[in-house]
Amino acid sequence: MITYSHGVNGEPVTIFVPETDGDLRTFMDWARSQPVLALDTETTGLDIFASGYRLRTVQFGTTREAWVIHYELGGRFVEAAQYILKRCPRFLIHNAPFDWLVLDAHANIPLESMAPRTTDTKIKATLIDPRQPQEGGIGTGLKPLSAHYVDPQAPDTQGDLTAVFRSLGLTKATGWAGIDLRHPTYNLYAGLDVIYTARLNPVLDAEHERLGVRPALVDYEHEIAHMCAHMQRAGLVLDLEYVDTLRRMLREEEEKYLTVAARYGVDSVNSGAQVSEALLAMGETLTEQTDGGALKVDKAVLLPLADLDRDWVSIGARAPNPLAEAVLRAKRAGKWVTSYADKFAANVDPNGCIHPTINTLQARTGRMSITGDFAAQTLPSSDWMIRRAVVGDHPDHIFGSVDFQAIEMRVLAALADVKRMKAGFCDPDPDPTLYPDGFDIHMYTARLIKGAAATGRDRKVFKGAGFGKVYGGGISTIARQTGATEAEIARAVAEYDRVFPEIKRASSRWQREARATGMVTVSVTGRRLPLDRHRAYAVVNYQCQSAARDVLGQAMINMRDAGLLEYMKLPIHDEIVFSAPKSDAKDIAREFERCMTMDLYGVPVTAEADLGAHSWGSLYGAAA
DNA sequence: AAGTTCACG
DNA sequence: ACGTACGTGAACTTT
């Protein structure tokens, strides 16, 4: 047995690294009697589903000691780790979804077995403060949390190991796979991580108590994390033949327009300086500036120069500038091939699946994000081309999606108790001649203000005003977004405030509360939402975005309880994407709608399903 | 590492 | 009194 003595917050701790069968028996005798163990794994990297991926080490610990089990050695080491993994009633894990999926894929310990026994200290910490240190927060990594809550002298275990990797001629990318399991720094830090996790947990509990973070919210977040890990494990099936075609086509398109751009002296279309210089030389005038003071040459600037509207359709207002068009097309093809098509091909697993990394509590508002191999929340939606690469789980499956209807506006009506808005949403039988596609809050508002004569343009203006309320936008921004004049918007916003006076009152109240509590506002679920001092106006948006996220979270729990988890593929803010057998798809879609239908403080929250064909792209236009 | 652009809800 | 559209992830260029 190798042992390391170390100090944590002035107290001695011991790290044990078993070497023999006898050492492993001592470990098991100790671990068997522990009601709760902190747990961590070390692996060859982050790409859990790639071939050749290995689980190297599993660590177990308490506030006083840690045991570092080298799983990679096989035999009795594997047996000992699995014995405790199956048996211990409760685990503390920092960022549990990663370790759940590692153990599920590489240690034969199912997610379904681990998740109900897990407390995730990252979830607890994020509910206290979701901000990273750069944003003025504590951070949500084990290192900043340990330094803040446990021991100011806590080492940067990951950072220091990276330095060790370099001294061994390895890199951050190769070090985790290449470091010798006997390396003392590797073993010491592997052990310290679980000791810090064990010490973090009671401090976080005390903070929750002090700040009023509800235990029900903690449980709810664990359930959401479990469901999202389930979706990550399943992944999405790719049509690899199509991915290859897509890559070829987009590269050709890019090349074609790069050649055109080069004729005008632009050899890098992504260089704003080159593009603006060449356009000026062609006699174009550029007026908009970037925050940094350079001339702006983004899509919004280039489209009019190319005589194209926002949907890239020819306007006929001027002679198109060939360079502007070439830059637009080359940049779009380039982005689509590198950010999407190439990444699909590079990250596909041996079964032809791609796995999203779902961060269930990423944004300050609690919103989820999807990062890494497959940023599925940000695939182009204006065209089916990219999403066409993703297909149903089985040949007889089709893709579907269920969206909340105008969720931000409904949440606003509910939270601010907006009487006339609520009355509109609550109308059980909206006149189909007025609302042929179902009730529409923006047309409702237009009619409330303009009467029966309200037009589609009125609708657009009041939709802008509504979004301005939800986002906290000013008159000029709303005008720019809607294309209406500032005078028109100013009048519309004033009328909006007249018919929905509760919004302004709620906004003032929330801003006052936020300031009084140090610019941290508390959502309806008790979630703490840190708000920058100079951005108090954003409190309405924080409340709405956060409540909408929690409504989706509740809907996801309803879906799981209804047996729909196996069909769920992705959460996308106000939408769930699913893959289901074609023969049952209509019934399944109805079930999804039912799970997303609920009441929020007297406002009905509703959802509508859309069924496509075999590919995800089929929901976005003409693809098969 | 910062700045710019572009993809999403 | 004034004025701020909200939240993300990722690639590429320039520094």
UniProtKB/TrEMBL annotation:
Residues 12-209 form the 3'-5' exonuclease domain. Its EC number is 2.7.7.7. Coiled coil: none annotated. Gene3D superfamilies: 3.30.70.370, 5' to 3' exonuclease, C-terminal subdomain (1.10.150.20), Ribonuclease H-like superfamily/Ribonuclease H (3.30.420.10), Taq DNA Polymerase, Chain T, domain 4 (1.20.1060.10). The keyword Metal-binding does not apply. GO terms for biological process: DNA-templated DNA replication; double-strand break repair. GO terms for molecular function: 3'-5' exonuclease activity; DNA binding; DNA-directed DNA polymerase activity. Pfam families: DNA_pol_A, DNA_pol_A_exo1. It catalyses: DNA(n) + a 2'-deoxyribonucleoside 5'-triphosphate = DNA(n+1) + diphosphate. Residues 383-584 form the DNA-directed DNA polymerase family A palm domain. Keywords: DNA replication. SUPFAM superfamilies: DNA/RNA polymerases, Ribonuclease H-like. The keyword Protease does not apply. It comes from the Bacteria. Belongs to the DNA polymerase type-A family. This is DNA polymerase I. It comes from Streptomyces finlayi.
